[in-house]
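Hey, sorry to bother you again with one of my protein questions. I've been puzzling over a protein and I'd love to understand its fold better. Take your time with it, there's no hurry, and the full record follows here:
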Amino acid sequence: MVVRQIPRPQEKTRGGIISGLKPTPASKISKTMRHAILGAGGVGGLMGASLVHAGDAVTMVVRAESVEQYPKQLHLESPFGNFTVDVGVVAEVPAVDVLWLTVKATQLESALAALKNPNAVGSIVPLLNGIDHIAELRGKYGRERVIPATIAGEMERVSPGHFVHRSPFARLNISSAGRALLGTTLDELQKIGFACRFIDDEPTLMWGKLVFLAPFALSTTAANKNVGEIFADPEWSALGEACVREACAVAIAEAAKVDADAVLGAARAMPGNMRSSMQKDVERHNPPELDAIAGPILRGAQRHGIAVPVTEKLVAGVEQRAGLTKRLAGDSGLNFFTDRTRKIS
């Protein structure tokens, strides 16, 4: 199979012009964008199926032992429509214009073993929870190659190749550094039903999701309640609101532009039956993404001298429900957590 070169300086792509690389003859440029999805969970399934539905080519990167059995079609059930699309399936990241990282934060290091040839990838767009992975990826693959992004919504894999998008929304925000490459792609995703934005300010992009996600994930998991049940319970609702305000205080100290009242308004507008991925991980006895989701808030609070007692309390509640107190305290190096033995009162 002949594969065209990755875009070079001043090479026109479907999304615009990418700088900093060597030109490729126009006769060799494909009209469709080539995407790889590393992480075949809920987010990866939604993105893979939607990108193909929007007219691009997608290859799913799965574990080597799963390649032969993995379906060559993705089926998505979504408020945006139900559809089935054809995809490629491989064990190593191929030459593509965009690599979307859609693994759990706890799986990132092992998943990157599938990226054998980073130079064959034009850009890397991580859709992981948290913030710290951006610096890690830039350290490995270069600042210009990594385009920060976030996605919000409830989606999950129900079986290999079969995905359900449960929330009535999917919000995809990407750094403005990716506008030239991904502008047309985001236009097509918006036609499907996504809400997409390019954001100039990187701290606001990354913290803007975290100040919403962390209180939602921590409170629903610690309480084992969905969003509606949290807001219906005065004590848990107060804890969730306090966690939002603590997270926003840290985010503002980190130069992000966030507003706690706006975050709370958006949380109250969520469907009452929404549940967090952290909550589902704990129910399935999978490691929760505590370091990725709570870590930046607790470490940032320590740097800036900001008290975050409710966040610490909710973290302790998640650890207790997940049976992680001794393991996290002793093995993992997550030494920013304090008073792990404290229970939710």
